[in-house]
């Protein structure tokens, strides 16, 4: 059963049987919003980019994004860059996290999405972030971005250690920047 998350909501990543999830996929999806023009509605391709920033004690130690598809330790993997979004029913970009392989010093993984071409989220619709149990394909949680805004990025969610397990928190914080590096000042307060 999927949990529809609201901004700031956290859920445990424990399985119903008491076990711990071992591998999750953070899927991101979006569509270009139609614009009214002289000749009716039209859309413009939107290139959003998903990134995962790995933190140890609030310090960034690694990142996975379209130019660095696998974390240095191999526990986090990006499936590849989608330059247009909205091409199918599934995720436009996904980041796979092997929670069992994440080194013990990594305590948070923050997922961001930014417009590399600088288009604002006013031009985006149906943007979502979802967490899927990679072992069986079951969607666990979904955070839907409500409405667009005059910003170029979102700090979507984070997966963080709680004791021996992990939690996911929907963040939904708007920011401005074309890359994850531009977003670091906005990420640090949500750690």
UniProtKB/TrEMBL annotation:
Residues 1-178 form the TerD domain. InterPro entries: Stress/Tellurium_Resist, TerD. This is TerD family protein.
């Amino acid at each position: 059963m999927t949990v529809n998350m609201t901004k700031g909501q956290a859920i445990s990543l424990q399985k119903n049987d008491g076990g711990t999830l071992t591998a999750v996929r953070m899927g991101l999806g979006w569509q270009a919003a139609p614009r009214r023009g002289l000749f009716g509605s039209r859309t413009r391709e939107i290139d959003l980019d998903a990134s995962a920033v790995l933190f140890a004690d609030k310090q960034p130690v690694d990142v996975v994004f379209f130019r660095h598809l696998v974390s240095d330790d191999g526990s986090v993997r990006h499936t590849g860059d989608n330059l247009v979004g909205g091409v199918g029913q599934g995720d436009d970009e996904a980041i796979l996290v092997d929670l069992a392989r994440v080194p013990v010093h990594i305590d948070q993984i923050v997922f961001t999405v930014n417009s590399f071409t600088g288009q604002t989220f006013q031009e985006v619709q149906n943007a979502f972030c979802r967490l899927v149990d990679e072992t069986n394909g079951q969607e666990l949680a979904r955070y839907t971005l409500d409405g667009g805004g005059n910003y170029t990025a979102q700090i979507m969610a984070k997966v963080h250690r709680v004791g021996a397990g992990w939690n996911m928190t929907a963040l939904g914080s708007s920011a401005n920047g074309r890359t994850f590096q531009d977003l670091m000042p906005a990420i640090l307060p949500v750690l």
